[in-house]
Amino acid sequence: MELPVPLRQGVERLLEKVPLPMLKQAARTLSDRYRAELRDGRMHMAEEMAVKAYLATRLPATYAAVRASLDALSEARPDYAPKTLLDVGAGPGTVLWATLDLWPDLEQAVLLEASAAVRRVGEALATEAMTAKIAWLAGDVTIDLADLEPAELVTCAYVLDEIAPASLPKLIDRLWQLTDDTLLVVEPGTPAGWQRILAVRRHLIEAGAHVLAPCPHEAPCPLTAPDWCHFSRRVARSRLHRLAKDADVPWEDEKFIYVAASRQTASSRAARVIAPPKSGSGKVLFKLCQKDGSAGEKLFTKRDGDAFRLARRLDWGDTI
Ligand SMILES: C[S@@+](CC[C@H](N)C(=O)[O-])C[C@H]1O[C@@H](n2cnc3c(N)ncnc32)[C@H](O)[C@@H]1O
């Protein structure tokens, strides 16, 4: 999955004259802070160079994860096309770009972001081609949500790992109150990210939400540690991305986990592929999360005819 062309070009312009050694150092520091899930009272992206490192090394991956999560919720509700968006911890506007890519008729977006350096970059990247009315707000998601207006789509992508765990239940309550229709939360696809999404999912179900995706049910998650639910998207690495990370491979696999919860029920529910399919000659085996709340396996062989031919095209994260 690639960034939309105007976003990619905007990022390239912002990164044009950045000295590579500084970018590399900033990318290393950012990556170390994210890996350690460091919460030391400082923002990971307080400095402009950290924001540039994010644009070069993280934005393509978080964009791909958000876009894939939006696709999954749209598949569960094909008639849903939100006109209003509230995105908290907006970073450089990742969710806004992904939402506009899927629903170009979005009319209004409010983006809340604590870091002034990131907000500046997000505003610079947003183009005149965006017809939606966009407001960037300075604020802390744990304390500054009181005066916000509800939106049809509320999102929080790759933010919960930066928030003190004790603040999460209140934050999720407030985001749900602000949700007129659907709330999407995306996290890194690590065991810790999955645990956070599980807690969010439980909390929202207790509040009366319907799960649109990825789970085709509201029963407790059937997976148990050390297994964990997550998905993956292959992301092309730009030349600068490879240089910033001293990486040879022109792509990376972004692991992510998400939950889309709604005030509306899903139009349809289907089992979801929750691991890479295992293909052999004349057969393909899927690990599935199923409508009855269980996890199970399903084997398709040549003898299944058309169903087998269709199944062979399915990938991790697809519905079946
Ligand atoms: C990993 S970035 C994700 C950005 C974007 N949502 C994405 O998916 O690419 C997390 C963002 O959340 C912001 N953030 C972290 N804690 C916050 C808080 N308490 N209030 C508002 N924003 C916060 C950070 O400044 C950063 O821009």
Automatic annotation (TrEMBL):
Q: Which UniProt keywords apply?
A: Iron, Iron-sulfur, Metal-binding, Methyltransferase, Ribonucleoprotein, Ribosomal protein, Transferase, Transit peptide
Q: Does the keyword Cell wall biogenesis/degradation apply?
A: no
Q: Which Gene3D superfamilies match?
A: Vaccinia Virus protein VP39
A GO CC term assigned to this protein in UniProt: small ribosomal subunit
A molecular function annotated in GO for this UniProt entry is: structural constituent of ribosome
Q: Which InterPro entries match?
A: Mt_RNA_Methyltransferase, Ribosomal_Rsm22-like, SAM-dependent_MTases_sf
Q: Does the keyword Iron-sulfur feature in the UniProt annotation? A: yes
Q: Its GO biological process terms?
A: methylation; translation
Q: Which residues form a coiled coil?
A: none
Q: Which PANTHER family match?
A: 37S RIBOSOMAL PROTEIN S22, METHYLTRANSFERASE-LIKE PROTEIN 17, MITOCHONDRIAL
Record protein name field: Ribosomal protein RSM22 (Predicted rRNA methylase)
